[in-house]
Amino acid sequence: MKLYYSPGACSLSPHIILNEGGFSFDRERVDLASKKTETGADYAAINPDGYVPALLLDDGQVLTEGPAIIQYLADRVPEKKLAPPLGTLERYRLMQWLNFISTELHKGFSPLFHPQAPKEWKTVVAAQLGRRLSTVSRQLEGKDWLLGEGFTVADAYLFTVLGWGRHVGIDVEQWPVLQAYQGRVSTRPAVQSALKAEGLLQDT
Fold first, then answer.
1. CA torsion sign, 191 to 1 to 86 to 136?
2. What is the number of other CB atoms lying within 10 angstroms of the CB of residue 10?
3. I need a labelling partner for 115 at 20 to 30 A (CA). Which of 48, 60, 88, 122 fits?
4. H or E stretch including 176?
């Protein structure tokens, strides 16, 4: 398999899960501005939508959209318990949170990165995003992980999105529960490995 990624983007979550699952995989960096990969390939030919992540499977098929990719990977290694079993209520709880992270948090951050978005609109968006982060904080109260017991793919996605806050002026320190959670996730070897590989964490 090969993961197409951009450092710190939402492709970080499947990168983490590939590590957590013990998969053998290659990675190829994508320049999202030029739509070229580090080998000079036309990324639009791999994912016509032009964004990351994309996962090239061993049979040549390409899977896109982070929540789909991380569930696919989790189901390949059920013994790792990165997702509850298919058909259980717990699996639908996972889907519930993946949808929340995708639509309410991930897309909530998008206008804050847009250079042409008016300042007034960014203020409105930031306030809405703060309310959504408060929802996540309440969910995590008294828990180590988003679904309670055990690290899942939802934690990889949430960790990735929370990391964007420092780039757009949303300080996670406002929510001590989220700050502690970020610290907890960041110490996992699979997370450390992904951050280092993407140049987001220097070797000490």
1. positive
2. 24
3. 48
4. helix 176-186
Nearest to 80 by CA among 70, 88, 89: 70
CA distance linking residue 63 with residue 186, whole number of Å: 26
Half-sphere exposure of residue 145: CA atoms within 13 angstroms, side-chain side: 17
Tokens of 135: 């929802």
pLDDT of residue 203: 57
Strands annotated E in the chain: 2-5, 26-31, 36-37, 54-56, 62-64
Label residue 81 by pLDDT band (50, 70, 90): very high
Burial class (CB in 10 A: 0-12, 13-18, 19+), 126: middle
The C-alpha angle 50, 52, 58, rounded to 5 degrees, equals 105
Find where tokens 């939508």 sit. Answer: 49
- pLDDT tens-digit series, residues 124-161: 999 999 999 999 999 999 999 999 989 999 999 999 99
**How far is 174 from 30, CA to CA, in rounded Å?**
33
Question: What domains are there in the chain, each with its CATH number?
Answer: 2-80+191-197 (3.40.30.10), 89-188 (1.20.1050.10)
**Angle, vertex CA 5, rays to CA 161 and CA 184, nearest 5:** 40
Which amino acid would we find at residue 107? K
